[in-house]
Amino acid sequence: SAPIAVSDVGSVTKGTALVAGGDVLSNDSDPEGAALTVTAVNGQAAGVGTTIVGLYGTLLLGADGRYTYTLDNNDPDVQVLGAGQVVTETFRYTLSDGQSHYVPRPGPWQNLLSFSEAFDNAAWSRFSVPGTLPAITADIAADPFGSATTADRLTLSGAASGIYQSAAVTGQHSFSVWLRLVSGDGHFSFNYYDGVSNALQSAVATGEWQRFTWTFTGNGASNGNVALMHDATQSATGVFEIWGAQLNPGATAQDYLPTSSTPVTIDNPEPAELIVSSTLTISIHGA
């Protein structure tokens, strides 16, 4: 049987208690009593035992589960926190008992986007109202798992600008993509355009790869689309690495399914390897 993971929390305070520590594996367990190790942080094996830069500080999480979070007390977003104010940031870690575990993958397994990694392809339209169009450089960095140089670089340098791909879908769908911030401002937005109006949802990328997911309800409009963009208030330039966009029916993102010319549907997929993960959430208190 697979390990059982339980979420963890920590706390720091501006100006007084800048460091939090503990063991994320202390409340996790294995049904057979096997020893557990941390094998990835935010989806990356290279993140274990190395310093991860977060929104408000840095995390060092070792294979043995022990962690140290250090608040960046000089960060402007930390300095503005007053007494009683609290913000949080969350890190995801993967754990293993040294064995492989598999679970059925329900069908159909789908990615309704025609190009999931080639963001420089014409299937991804660039737009700007009215400023500078986004810039895209293909295959400039390793993917989130470090297995191939297939991540593209996306530069958003003005408000109301971004990239979109057609999404003439009906009913509840989930759009997901992997993003990390290279430089500049990490704020960006997802949008579903239903042929008449927009449904914007904002997010913030950090220097570590994260898979962002947004859920929306499509109305079947032939000119509907999903976009990654700056909204009208997000004008500061941000340079991102981007990989693995996916659009599938339902309220959650399915396992990533790459596409390179047409949407893909697998009606009876093979079982998937179970990845057991949990979260460490740090609360940052003002003073």
Kindly describe this structure.
By secondary structure, this protein is mostly beta strands. It has 2 domains: 8-103 and 273-285, Immunoglobulin-like, CATH 2.60.40; 109-270, Jelly Rolls. It contains 1 helix and 22 strands. The chain has one helix at residues 76-79, and strands at residues 8-13, 19-23, 37-41, 51-53, 57-61, 66-71, 86-96, 102-103, 109-111, 125-128, 135-141, 151-156, 161-166, 170-184, 187-193, 198-204, 210-219, 225-230, 238-249, 264-266, 272-273, 276-285. A 5-stranded antiparallel sheet has the order 10-13-18-15-16, with no helix packed on it. A 5-stranded antiparallel sheet has the order 11-12-19-14-17, with no helix packed on it. A hairpin with a 4-residue loop joins strand 15 and strand 16 (198-204). The radius of gyration is 20 Å and the shape is globular. The chain starts with 7 loop residues before the first strand and ends with a strand. 33% of the residues are buried. The model has no long low-confidence stretch (mean pLDDT 95).
